[in-house]
Amino acid sequence: MKSPIPDYLQHVLDKARDNEAGAPAAYIDVLARADTSKLAVALAMVDGNLYSAGDDQVEFSIQSISKAFVYALAIEDAGLPRVLEKIGVEPSGDRFNQLSLERGTNRPMNPMINAGAITAHSLVVAPNATAEARTERILKSLSRLAGRQLHVDEEVYEAELKDADRNMGIGHMLKAAGIITCDPREAVKGYIRQCAINVNVKDLAMMSATLCNAGVHPFSGEQIIPHASVRQVLSVMTTCGMYDAAGDWVSNVGIPAKSGVAGGIIGTLPGQVGIAAFSPKLDERGNSVRGVAICEQLSRDMGLHMMDVSQIARATVQTSVATLVAGEHEPHNPNCQREVLVFKLRGAVRFAGSERLTRALTRELGQPDPKVPGSGAHSQACAIVLSFREVYSLNFIARRLVHEDIERLLAEGRILVVIDPSEVLHWDAEKAKTGKHPKVVENETEARDYIGGIGCQAVSRDQGW
Ligand SMILES: NC(=O)CC[C@H](N)C(=O)O
Fold it and tell me: Which reaction does it catalyse (predicted)?
C-alpha cells in the first residue's frame, strides 16, 4: 500500500500555491531575487520517519529559524541564569529588527528578535570567544541536528553584511547597554553568518523533530539539546517565534514555531511531529505567506493545535478494577471467598493517570465512605495486582505517586503483585531504598501462579485477566 500522507502533503501544497500574496525579503538582495515559485513542506516524526512534498531539495538560508537553536546553545554554554540575565522572555509585539530593549532591565525582550538573537549568539562558547569559534560551534550543532553537513551560503552572507546597518545599530546598542561585552561588529557578523546557513525543508523538519523528541536526535539517538533547554526554547518559540504575529499564530495554528526571512518556517509539536515549510514570499510581518497557510491547514486538518483538548488524560489511562473471587478450598462458601483486585493502567501515564489509579486504590481499598458509593467495598482483599503491562511510560511524578501508593499498600500488610514487563516503574533503583517490595512479575499467568501459591486462587470475572 502507498501511504496517503505524501499525497495529502501534495494536496496541501497545491492549495497553498493559489495564494499569490506577499513579496520576498527586499533588504537582502540575494533573497529579493529568490525564485518565488518554490514551495515545499516536510514532516518528521519523532522516530525520524520523514514525509515531504514539493521542492524538498531546494536549499535556502535558515535565517531567523537559527535563533531557536542558537538560544539552546547559549543556554548550554552560559547556563540559563546567565542567559536570562541578558535576554528576556516576553513577546515584544515589535518587528523582528526593532532597536529596542526591555524597560527597566535593559535586556532585549526575547531571543527571537534580532537584539536577543545577537546577544544569544555572543553567549555561545564563551563571551570572549572568537567569531570563528562561535560560528563553527553553531554550524556543527545545526549539522548534527539536520543529520548532514550544512554549509554557509557565502553569497547570502556577503549580501546581508553589505546592508547590515540596522543589525550593526542593534549590536552597538547592546554594547552600550552592557548586554554584550565583545566587539559588536564581530557579534553581528557571526549572527549574520549563522543566518546564512543553508538548509532544505527536510533538514528543518529533522531539526524540529529533535526538539519534539526532547532534544534526542531521532536517528543518532544523541541528546543534542539538553532536555531542560528544549522546554525553554519551545516556550519562547510559542510566545515570540512569529514576532508580532505570535498571538494570531498561537490561536490559529497552536504549534511552537519559528520563521525566517528566506521563507522557511518550522513548527514543533512536542512529542509528535516536526513540521517545515518553505516559500519565499513574506507577509508584512516577515513570515512566509504560503508557509503560514500550510501550517494553518496542517494544524486544522490533523488536529495539531496544542490547546485542542481532544485528549483527556482519562482516555490514555484506563483503570479497570476487576474483582476476582478466590477460595480454592471451599469455592461455594461465600465466607471463605477472598478477593484479589486487579488495577490496569494503559498508555503514557502522567500525573492525571496516576491520580486515577491512586483514587481507584483508595476508593476500593480504603474505609467505606457514605458519600462515595461503593467505597471500601474491597478493603478486605487478600491480594492486589497492579498491571503496567500496557503502560508505555510513566513520567517522574506518575512514577513517584505509584511508588508512594505501593509503599502505603505494603505498609498496610497487603500482598502486592506488580506486572511490569517493560520495567516502567524502574523498580530496582527504588527497591534499594526501601526494605519492603512487591512481587514483580512479567505477565498475568505469573501473577496468577504467585497468587495461587499463597492460597488464593484467582477466578476472573473479567476476560481480560
Ligand atoms: N527574520 C529573519 O529571518 C531575520 C534574519 C536576518 N538575518 C536579519 O537579521 O535581518
Answer: L-glutamine + H2O = L-glutamate + NH4(+)
Site to probe by mutation for ligand 1, drawn from 60, 62, 97 as the one with most ligand atoms within 8 Å of Cβ, is 97
**If you measure from the C-alpha of residue 167 to the centroid of ligand 1, how many angstroms do you get, rounded to a whole number?**
9
The position carrying cell 486487579 is 342
Q: Tell me the C-alpha distance between 464 and 447, whole Å.
A: 14
Question: How many Å apart are CA 219 and CA 196, to the nearest integer?
Answer: 25
User: Cβ(64) to ligand 1 under 6 A?
Assistant: yes
Instruction: Express the helix, strand and coil content of the chain in percent, nearest 5 each.
Output: 45, 15, 40
CATH 3.40.710.10 residue ranges of the chain are 4-302
Closest ligand 1 atom number to CA of residue 160: 7
CB of 210 within 8 A of CB of 145? Answer: yes
Q: What is the pTM of this model?
A: 0.84
Is residue 171 in contact with ligand 1, taking CB distance under 6 Å? no
Query: From CA 320, how far away is CA 299, in angstroms rounded?
Result: 34
CATH class of 4-302: alpha beta
Tell me the residue type at 124.
Answer: V
Q: Mention the CATH class of domain 313-453.
A: alpha beta
d(CA 60, CA 50): 19
- CB of 30 closer than 6 angstroms to any ligand 1 atom: no
Encode pLDDT of 276-332 as tens digits.
999 999 999 999 999 999 999 999 999 999 998 866 655 455 555 555 554 554 445
How far is it, in rounded angstroms, from Cα 290 to Cα 264? 10
Q: Strands of 257-259's sheet, edge to edge?
A: 50-54, 40-45, 273-278, 264-269, 257-259
